[in-house]
Amino acid sequence: MPAMTMIEAIRAELDDALARDDRVMIIGEDVGTLGGVFRATDGLQKKYGEQRVVDMPLAEGAIVGSAIGLAISGMRPVAEIQFLGFAHQAFHQIGQQLARLRFRSQGRCELPVVVRAAFGGGVRSPELHSDAFEALYVHSPGLKVVTPATPADAKGLLRRAIEDPDPVLFLEPLRGYRAQRQDLPDVPYEIPFGELRVAREGDDVTIVAWSAAVELAERAADALAEVGVSAQVVDLRTLAPFDVHGLTEAVKRTGRCVIVHEAPMTGGFGAEIAATLAETAFYYLKAPIERVTAPDTPYPLAGVERFYIPSVEEIVATVRRALDAD
To answer: 303 Cβ partners below 8 Å, 6+ apart?
Structure first.
């Protein structure tokens, strides 16, 4: 298979899913005629028809609500919300219906729904487009939350999500869509949920990240290597469920942990990671767990977003503080 960007890998997997299972549908705003705002569904309506790739009105609650009804009726819908910030308009459907219906029906209703949404900064988008609200959805029991960082992971995790009997929120990094090309396996493959990826080995500190922050962490590891610091970079890949055992072992190896995410610090998923490690790896820690995050303010205008999202320099400075804590 030729090297692909993340958006190409996602499109290829959606194409495969539509071809292999007549129950799979794609619904969302502009997914058909336009091919999606980022062209993730480009050409799929022409190939599979308007009954399989369906343009929906600008109404996020209606998009997710329709996906729920389709799933209860035996279909396997993939719903696109253009930006995660817009999903607030559908939270009553995601949190109160989609995540709960299998529990509420005592297992009678499977909800094989995938909700795709782009999120994260670094592309100078308008207000409400870049917010990282992933922690809100992790706090909705019954919903799986997936955050790929590479094209290969995006394809394998999306296949797993479409085949899953439970609802999955599939979050795609805005600045990761076309940031890199990667060789993908020639055969179909799935990546299981709840298994992290060690993006880089290291012995002095463990940097934990997900989505676009993984690439940022790897750049920080490069900068640290130039001054003799060996940083391990861990990509969680999925937040619900997340790999508690793998994360614990990674932090035990180095005794230091720096967590990086684009969401504000207070109530961010980094706090859950820190609390978990306090339970599972406390006696192995050589320094306090550190976090590099956005500040506790609304997402700013595009012209100043570089001062808002974490930077390589912030990560390096935080790692050096952790190393000096002995």
So the answer is: 124
pLDDT tens-digit series, residues 202-258: 999 999 999 999 999 999 999 999 999 999 999 999 999 999 999 999 999 999 999
Q: Coil, strand, or helix at residue 30? A: coil
Asked if residue 211 lies in contact with residue 120, where contact means CB atoms within 8 angstroms, the answer is: yes
pLDDT in tens, 252-276: 999 999 999 999 999 999 999 999 9
How many CB atoms within 10 Å of residue 324?
A: 8
Which CATH number is 6-176 given? Answer: 3.40.50.970
- For residue 153 the two structure tokens come to 């992971």
Q: Taking every pair of C-alpha atoms in the chain, what is the biggest distance, in angstroms?
A: 62
Extents of the domains making up the chain? 6-176, 197-323
Compute the average pLDDT of residues 149-163.
Answer: 98
What whole-number distance in Å separates Cα of residue 290 and Cα of residue 252? Answer: 15
Closest CA to 270 of 179, 205, 207, 193: 207
* d(C-alpha 324, C-alpha 50), whole Å: 60
Tens digits of per-residue pLDDT, 57-68?
999 999 999 999
**3-state secondary structure (DSSP) of residue 229:** coil
Sheet holding 144-146, edge to edge: 53-55, 24-28, 76-83, 114-119, 168-173, 144-146, 238-240
Catalytic annotation present for 129: yes
Decide whether 6-176 matches 197-323 in CATH topology: yes
Contacts of residue 168, Cβ cutoff 8 Å, sequence gap at least 6: 113, 114, 115, 143, 144, 145, 146, 161
- Cβ–Cβ under 8 Å, residues 138 and 239: yes
pTM score of the predicted model = 0.96
More confident residue, 1 or 282: 282
Catalytic residue among 92, 129, 139, 261: 129
Is the Cα torsion angle 234, 238, 240, 243 positive or negative in sign? negative
Give the architecture (CATH level 2) of 197-323.
3-Layer(aba) Sandwich (3.40)
